[in-house]
Structure formats: C-alpha cells, structure tokens
Write a structure and sequence with these properties.
With 205 residues, the chain is of the alpha/beta class. It has 8 helices and 5 strands. The chain has one domain: Rossmann fold (3-Layer(aba) Sandwich). Helix content is 55%, strand content 13%. Bound molecules: adenosine-5'-diphosphate and magnesium ion. Magnesium ion (MG) binds next to α1.
C-alpha cells in the first residue's frame, strides 16, 4: 500500500520540465509536503550510469530494443530503490519523465509496439503508476532549439520528424490516460507556466 502522491512531468525536449519541477518542488515544500524530486533516466547510481550510455552521442549503433531496455532497466532500479520506498514513507514524489516517455519516444517516435512497451514497463515498475501526469505542451521546434542551445545529446540529435511524432504521441497518451493527465500550456514566462501548474495541482490535491 503506497501512501504518498506520485506526480510526473512529461513533454518534448526543452518544454520546461526541469525548470518547472524545481519551482513545483519549492511550492510544495513551502506548503509543508515532504517532497522528493527525481528524474529519468537516472535517479540512482546505477541509473545514472545507464543514462550516460543512453545519451552519449557516440552510442550511434544502439538498437531500439536495447534503448528501450536500458531506459526500462534504469526505471526498474529507480522504482525499487527510490520511488516505491518514498511513496511508502508518504512523500510527494515528483519525477521528471517516466513510463510515458518510453511510450512517446520508443513507441510513437521509434515505432515499437505500444502494447509490448506497456507490458515490459508494467513488469519493470511493479505497476506503480503516477496519480497525476502533467504534460507541458510547447511547440516541438522551439523546445528543441532551447534544449540544444548548448550541446545536443543522442536523443536530441534525432531529426525534427522524430520529435514531432513524440509530441503527437504525448497528446495521444493524454487522451488514452485522461484520468491522470493534465495538459498545461508551457508557453510564456517560467512564472506564468508555474501558475498554471499550481492551478492544476490545487484542483488535484
Ligand atoms: N518559460 C520559459 N521561458 C523561457 N525559457 C525557459 C522557460 N522554461 C524553461 N526555459 C529554458 O529553456 C531551457 C530548457 O528548459 P528545461 O526546463 O531544461 O526543459 P526540459 O527539462 O523540458 O528539457 C532551459 O535553458 C531553461 O532555462
Ligand atoms: Mg530536463
């Protein structure tokens, strides 16, 4: 039995997940919640090692199945080591990307079977699903420009069509899982987006 609240942030590259995650964490901590902020891939020592392989632009020959299994392996470790224990302690767990990113990137982006991805994800996470998923909606090209202003990782280096399929995929997932999804317009200043997220959260809590 998990007593905590599990919230995930999803969206295309550069839509503002990491920025909004830290603003949201601050807000919830001020409200007195015990908050844990984490991200994928990574979130554990083993996961961070896997993250390096996944995002390394030199990993060019990586098969899509290998890619899927590495993301999923990182997630399995993340759930068992961090997410499940934190939820059991009653924390609010804020996670930057989760299963939906695998469905959007490896499913809609790479073209792998969604049902297979769902099966392997459910197995890897012992069926621990978010109570609330906030999809930050931001124009694909603008986000990519923001994200790659310094240096593009292996996934960011994919062509714009790939990133468009990912964006469409997230919107489809939001309809498929409408009971836990909230789409938030991520255009505007960081403060404006934060206010929109707070509104969604106040209704949810
Ligand atoms: N509302 C915003 N307006 C302008 N720049 C932003 C906004 N939100 C985030 N950024 C900037 O855009 C870049 C990508 O944001 P980030 O939060 O890292 O996105 P993500 O984690 O979704 O890839 C960062 O340099 C960040 O400072
Ligand atoms: Mg980020």
């Amino acid at each position: 039995m998990h007593r905590g609240i599990f919230i995930t942030l999803e969206g295309v590259e550069g839509c503002g997940k990491t920025t909004q995650m830290s603003l949201l964490a601050k807000y919830l901590k001020n409200k007195g919640f015990n908050v844990l902020v984490t991200r994928e891939p990574g979130g554990t020592k083993i996961g961070d090692e896997i993250r390096k392989i996944l995002l390394n632009p030199d990993s060019k020959e990586m098969d899509y199945r290998t890619e899927t299994l590495l993301y999923t392996a990182s997630r399995a470790q993340h759930v068992s080591e961090v997410i499940a224990p934190s939820l059991e302690e009653g924390k609010v767990v804020l996670c930057d990307r989760y299963i939906d990113s695998t469905l959007a990137y490896q499913g809609f982006g790479r073209g792998l079977s969604l049902n297979k991805l769902i099966d392997v994800s459910r197995w890897a996470t012992c069926d621990i699903n978010p109570h609330l998923t906030i999809l930050l909606f931001f124009p694909t090209e603008d986000g990519l420009k923001r994200a790659t202003s310094k240096e593009a990782d292996r996934i960011e280096q994919e062509d714009i069509e790939f990133h468009r399929r990912v964006q469409d995929g997230f919107l489809k997932l939001a309809r498929l899982y409408s009971e836990r999804y909230q789409i938030v317009d991520a255009a505007g200043s960081q403060e404006e987006v934060h206010e929109r997220i707070i509104k969604v959260l106040e209704e949810f809590l």
